[in-house]
C-alpha cells in the first residue's frame, strides 16, 4: 500500500476577472515547488445541493503534509494575499484515501 495523497479543494467566486489571472500567475511558483497537480480547474458545474461558488478547483499533492506545506509556504501566502483582492474562496486541505 502507498501513502494517502493530499488535496486542496477550493470553491471560488472571482470578484475581479480582469485581475484574477495575476493570482493564477503568482501561485504557479508554489504549485511547482510542491508538485501540485490539478485534477479540476474551473469547468462546467451544477449545484445539486446547498450553496455553491462559481469556480471549483481540486489539486493533488503527494501527501497531506505536502499539501499543507504548500498552503502555508511563503510563496503561496504571497499569492493568497493577492487573490484576496480579486476573489473570495474557501480552501480545504484534505487527506485522500490510502492507495490499495
Shape: globular
Query: In terms of structural class, how would the helical and strand content be classed?
Result: alpha+beta
| Strand tally | 4
According to CATH, what is the topology?
Answer: Alpha-Beta Plaits
Q: Averaged pLDDT, please?
A: 93
* Total domain count: 1
Can you tell me the residue ranges where pLDDT is under 50 for at least 5 consecutive residues?
Answer: none
Radius of gyration: 14 Å
Give a quick account of the main beta sheet: strands, pairing sense, barrel closure: 4 strands, antiparallel
Q: Treating each run of at least 4 consecutive H or I residues as one helix, how many helices?
A: 3
- CATH secondary-structure class: Alpha Beta
- Percent of sequence in beta strands: 25-35%
* Known CATH architecture: 2-Layer Sandwich
Distance, first to last CA: 5 Å
In short:
With 100 residues, the protein is an alpha+beta fold. The chain has three helices and four strands, in the order βαββααβ.
Descriptive notes:
The chain has 100 residues and is α+β, with helices and mostly antiparallel strands. It is globular. It has one domain: Alpha-Beta Plaits (2-Layer Sandwich), CATH 3.30.70. Helix 1 packs antiparallel against helix 3. It has a 4-stranded antiparallel sheet with strand order 2-3-1-4. It contains 3 helices and 4 strands.
Task: Label this structure with key terms.
alpha+beta, Alpha-Beta Plaits, four-stranded antiparallel sheet, 3 helices, 4 strands
Amino acid at each position: 500500500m502507498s501513502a494517502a495523497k493530499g488535496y486542496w479543494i477550493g470553491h471560488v467566486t472571482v470578484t475581479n476577472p480582469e485581475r484574477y489571472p495575476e493570482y493564477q500567475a503568482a501561485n504557479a511558483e508554489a504549485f511547482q515547488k510542491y508538485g501540485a497537480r490539478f485534477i479540476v480547474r474551473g469547468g462546467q458545474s451544477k449545484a445539486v445541493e446547498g450553496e455553491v461558488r462559481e469556480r471549483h478547483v481540486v489539486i493533488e499533492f503527494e501527501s497531506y503534509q505536502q499539501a499543507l506545506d504548500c498552503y502555508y509556504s511563503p510563496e503561496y501566502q504571497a499569492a493568497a494575499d493577492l487573490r484576496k483582492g480579486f476573489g473570495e474562496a474557501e480552501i480545504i486541505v484534505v487527506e485522500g484515501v490510502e492507495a490499495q
